[in-house]
Amino acid sequence: MILGINAYHGDSSAALFSDGRCIAAVEQERFSRLKHHAGFPDLAIQECLEMVVAGPEAIEHIAIGRDPSAHFHNKVLFGLKRVSSMKEMLGARLANAAKVLDNKDSVATALGVNAKDLQAKNHRVEHHRAHLASALFCSPFEDAVCLSVDGMGDFASTMWGRGAGSKIDVDGQVLYPHSLGIFYTALTQFVGLPSYGDEYKLMGLSAYGEPRFLTQMRDVVRLGEGLNVELNLDYFVHDKEGVEMTWEQGTPEIAPLWSKKMEEVFGAARAYRGDVTERDKDLAASVQARLEEIVLEMLRRLYKRTGTPRLVMAGGVALNCVVNGMIRSETPFEEVWIQPAANDAGISIGAGLWVQHQILGQERSWVMDHALLGPEFSDTDYEMALEGLDVPYLSLDDEKLVDEAAKRIADGKIVGWFQGKMEFGPRALGNRSIVCDPRRHDMKDILNSRIKYREPFRPFAPSILQEKTGEWFTQDYPSPFMLMAYEVRPEKKDEIPAVTHEDGTGRLQTVDSSTNPRYHGLISAFERLTGVPVVLNTSFNENEPICCTPAEAIDCFQRTQMDTLVLGNFIVDKRISR
After folding, report:
1. Same domain, 438 and 535
2. Is the distance from CB of 340 to CB of 371 less than 8 angstroms?
3. Are residues 387 and 505 in the same domain?
């Protein structure tokens, strides 16, 4: 049994492997209720073992997705040149690295045992190697080109290589301070979106603007020889002054990455929660366009080097569904698989897989065809939660349940849909979702005013029956993890306006009956009523981490203006009497 962890960084998480398969994977935030929880994933580790009814003695290997010794020479040279200006910050980084070196003690503490009694062998896996492993070793491909792109991890921002079977050969990397992820994060902050993980908001805003600053963006970041991303460091402060980051137990924070030159070229930065101007929309469009130019050209160059038509990706930049949706049409790659937890939460899966295959040499035996790896609850759990709060409810059989829920959705009701195992990663994929009618032009505004309370430019996602994808979108390649944006067919846009973004695309989730039969059944029931094989899907939460437990689902249902709650086979309406 192998325990993989992402620790002392944002989106801390744990994953447990047995006999070559991932049997549990959860994020710390779902239990601490603090978004993108950094620090050590003690609650996530405990939950993984509880889910499979295993004790600490069952763990044979511990894999953490950090290696402070990676690129040590480059780190020393960088630090020596800046020791006077970054003394306090460098000290904080060293303290963080020391925690990684002592992570076995932290695991023992989390499990309530003495570190000496924990017999597991400890492994440190470099950040981007863990990302690459999370992309290849659980993909459906025997061999593929592997690419990891994010902000920064273990002094690197990008890594690429080739993988076949149970081995990955690393071919190159981009080192700090150059980073495509930092480019995107800095501009996200600049347009007044400062919170950790807000990059997806910039991506949503980009659909409303025109890339009129693209020429200037080409000066901010360029693609040099090979795959070398090069920042114009005049626009940034992280290279000269360092950047304050908080990676303790709680929501991570990153100080502004951009310099005064950014304002000299683009005007004053947008204030947090200030009005969104046409300039801001055009800046977002320009940043997104530049990201697309660079990523797509990187991929063309990778294909030219290898000739392999299969691509796997991970890293935070791989969550950019707009560029992901362009890969098969704009590059020679024919097949693409992206780790569902491409952000740093997926590091726990990648670290475990790296040890399992690259170090222990085990053959691959697990394909991650779904992300349902978290805790699940029984009908008894649901009924106890409902009885304890004296909420009126009905119990229905499977067929009646999906029909009744679909009727409510077709009638314009907002339905909280809580089923089976919790998803791993940033997307709600039909087990912890809020579901409603995509045909209504006003549904986005209704959701934002009654449930989500978020920026109006952020899109909502369509979940579609996989077998109907080509009838509604211009591409029919499966996108089960909501990681690709496809153009909605022109004749269908007016039929599903609530999930069609400003640029005519949708960040779709294709739903397969073999991996999530109940969610597939719900959408099928909705299609029988309406002729539309699509529902609007957004995460089951309200400015908090996605709901994990029935009690959290009931709490969210009660404090928002949701109409219906479906917990397993129980259905609750705010206006029905039992």
Report:
1. yes
2. yes
3. yes
CA dihedral (365, 367, 372, 373) positive or negative = positive
Q: What is the pLDDT at residue 309?
A: 98
Q: What angle do CA 177, 182, 187 make, to 5 degrees?
A: 135
Residues 435 and 476 in one domain: yes
What pLDDT does 577 receive? 40
Which one, of 446, 454, 478, lies nearest residue 465 by Cα? 478
Domain identity same for 115 and 154: no
Does 442 share its domain with 501? yes
Nearest to 455 by CA among 205, 190, 203: 205
Q: Is residue 496 within 8 Å of residue 244, measured between CB atoms? A: no
User: Residues of the chain whose pLDDT is less than 50?
Assistant: 576-578
Q: Which of 116, 129, 145, 111 is nearest to 63 (CA)?
A: 129
The answer to whether residues 155 and 72 belong to one domain is no
- Find the CATH number of the domain harbouring 287: 3.30.420.40
Residue type, 147: L
Q: Return the residue matching tokens 């020889």.
A: 225
Residue 529 is classified by DSSP as H
Quickly count: other Cβ atoms within 10 Å of residue 394's Cβ.
14
Indicate if 353 and 392 belong to the same structural domain.
Answer: no
In whole angstroms, what is the distance from residue 59 CA to residue 119 CA? 8
Cβ–Cβ under 8 Å, residues 108 and 117: yes
Q: Single out the residue of 412, 450, 436, 408 nearest to residue 499, CA to CA.
A: 436
Taking CA atoms, 180 is separated from 172, 227, 235, 290, 507, in Å, by: 15, 11, 13, 10, 22
User: 137 lies in a domain?
Assistant: no
Which 8-state DSSP code applies to residue 84?
Answer: T
Same domain, 436 and 504: yes
Q: What is the pTM of this model?
A: 0.95
Are 302 and 227 in contact, with CB atoms under 8 Å apart? yes
| C-alpha span between 282 and 39 (Å, rounded) | 36
Long-range contacts of 260-265 (CB under 8 A, 24+ apart): 261/234, 261/235, 262/186, 262/190, 262/235, 265/216, 265/235
User: Quick one: pLDDT at residue 516?
Assistant: 97
Q: Residue 494 falls within a domain, yes or no?
A: yes
Domain count across the chain: 3
Residue 337: its pLDDT value, please? 98
Q: Is residue 371 part of a domain?
A: no
- Is residue 365 included in any domain, yes or no? no
Pairing label, strands 415-418, 564-567: parallel
The CATH number of whichever domain residue 388 belongs to comes to: 3.90.870.20
Partners of 124 in the β-ladder? 64
Note down the domain range covering 75.
2-128+345-359
- 428 contacts 556 by C-beta, under 8 angstroms: no
